[in-house]
């Protein structure tokens, strides 16, 4: 059970957010439609009935629309044009709403009780039901838009963006992992520009496994991706290592796919470091959240040492001192290196075994 929860952590979080969104939306709808208004409907639910409607149908709608969103992201994004994606969304919404209306009809008929005999066709043709239908379309559009904003800004940044946390530079403690494709030049020459870009797309699609370890994608730079974690008190840094190994395992499990499509098996190298960074919103023509400071520079330089040491994963002495691995990792001190742009040396460790 725990393994299932860890593996599907992000999916469960999305469904949870949809459930919260739908319960909130239906609460607002029930308030607007019942406070000081006499709707022309063949049924008058009590306050208790309205609470049950909000909780039952809000949870049901959240689960169904949340799962639908997950399926769209997993199987249709990057595979079908936008207009077909829109049609699929409209069709899916109609099917889900039809299911909910069918169950709502039975709920009102058998539990609340109609004032008069009403067929299902009459029930869905009622002006209040029609308004509810369009309201559900609007709610799902808003929730989907919020989901897309979260993807664009990075997990957890939308609320902070709304609060204005990034208007003024602020100092945060963060861990950064620079993950870079091995032998990128050779692979690019072999595949050509177009096929190489498709290859990188597939690799970064498989990167989604790092979500289970609370990793945020800060930015993509060519064939390199920068992962980030917000450092909190008593943080377990092994999840940073586990995120990288999970990505490597995902690529190994899909090796046959990459060999058949590209004739190449991808492999990545990474450098990990943590410390203080300055966080701020930058840009006017195109705005984004940016991190500045030596922490990022050191993490990038450590990753560059992977080729020199012929290692896959290197970490700084600061990460090494904080790791709570209980012997599950074997570390090898590579030496104290004077990294490019730095005046003081930093001890670098290679991680030689996979954490459990």
Brief overview, please?
With 356 residues, the protein is an alpha+beta fold. Helix content is 56%, strand content 17%.
Describe the fold and architecture.
The chain has helices at 2-7, 9-34, 47-75, 82-112, 120-125, 127-153, 157-163, 184-191, 193-206, 238-253, 255-262, 294-309, 317-322, and strands spanning 170-181, 216-221, 224-230, 268-282, 288-292, 313-316, 331-337, 346-351. It is 56% helix and 17% strand. It starts with a helix and ends in a 5-residue tail after the last strand. Strands 1, 2, 3, 4, 5, 6, 7 and 8 form an eight-stranded mixed sheet that branches. Helix 2 (9-34) packs antiparallel against helix 3 (47-75) and helix 2 (9-34) runs antiparallel to helix 6 (127-153). By secondary structure, it is an alpha+beta fold. It folds into two domains: 2-153, no CATH class; 164-351, Alpha-Beta Plaits (2-Layer Sandwich). The model has no long low-confidence stretch (mean pLDDT 83). It is elongated, with a radius of gyration of 26 Å. The protein has 13 helices and eight strands.
